[in-house]
TrEMBL record:
Xref: CDD domains: ABC_DR_subfamily_A (cd03230)
Name of this protein: ABC superfamily ATP binding cassette transporter, ABC protein
Keyword Oxidoreductase among record annotations: no
Organism: Agrilactobacillus composti DSM 18527 = JCM 14202
Keyword Glycosyltransferase: no
Keywords: ATP-binding, Nucleotide-binding, Transport
Sample GO molecular function, one term: ATP hydrolysis activity
Spans traversing the lipid bilayer: none
Domain ABC transporter: 4-226
UniProt cross-references to Gene3D superfamilies, sorted A to Z: P-loop containing nucleotide triphosphate hydrolases (3.40.50.300)
Amino acid sequence: MTVIQATHLKFNYGSKQVLKDIDFTVEKGEIIGLIGENGAGKSTLLNILLGLLPAHGAATVLDQKPGTAFNKAHLGSMLQGDMRLSGITVLEMLQEAAAQYPKALDPQAILTEIGLQAQGNQRITSLSGGQLRRVTFGMALVGNPDLLFLDEPTAGMDAKARQDFWQHIETLRQQGKTMIITSHYLEEIQQIADRLLILQDGRFTFQGTLDELQAQHLETVISCRTELQPAIFKGLPAVTNVQQTGLLLKIHSTDGDLTLKALVPLLDQLHQISVTRKSLEDIFIQMTGK
Ligand SMILES: Nc1ncnc2c1ncn2[C@@H]1O[C@H](COP(=O)(O)OP(=O)(O)OP(=O)(O)O)[C@@H](O)[C@H]1O
């Protein structure tokens, strides 16, 4: 079942064209990783799908035009900088949010889920940045929405909070929720997303799974520790690049098998060898040149 459909979406801020031609669909239960450089237009796209910004072209969200009352009742969002800093407490904030939804969950239970049970009576203004992000997540969850837009959800969270957050996303996946998540933590996104949308210069330059993306950017990275000079490896078959950081070498190859065979005579001098495919981050940096 298609949850979101966008065709030829375009959007300008004044004379600045941010989205040039956006076409995509999202199916029920999918987790979409929406990635792009700073300023690529990810938040703008989410705001359009929420009905907060008007765009040219066609978009449906849950079979409705963006921004309808039905959509608001079934959609939870965690946007950047959308926390209204007021004097009320964390629990009151969640209760206020819950009151906007017809099938809301118990705010007290959400408080526990986001790991802020001890802060329920604390004023929003006294929370740390990471705690505020958790409250924003709680506000997105409390309406028990079918669809979630999470814009940079883990920005400002510490390592433990981020780990908890992604585990939570995994639970939501099992509940059949559909999610669009933007993040600059590409290592995290590549583990959770069913499908990636890469936004570049106002268009999606890639839509598909990580496997499909890696297949388009076939490269194996052989890492090892060695005292041998990088120049020795540069001439080996299929090697495209050799990076050195101290004793650590990263040998990039377009044919891992071929390069590994050529490394056999040197094995005595290579230590802690690992072989990996290119990560999403490597590919993203190659695609954007940044
Ligand atoms: N209210 C606004 N008025 C004018 N330009 C804006 C406005 N909001 C965003 N922009 C511009 O639109 C472009 C897209 O911004 P947007 O926030 O959608 O990008 P993003 O991909 O979410 O970036 P980031 O990863 O930094 O959050 C940027 O160039 C930004 O400067």
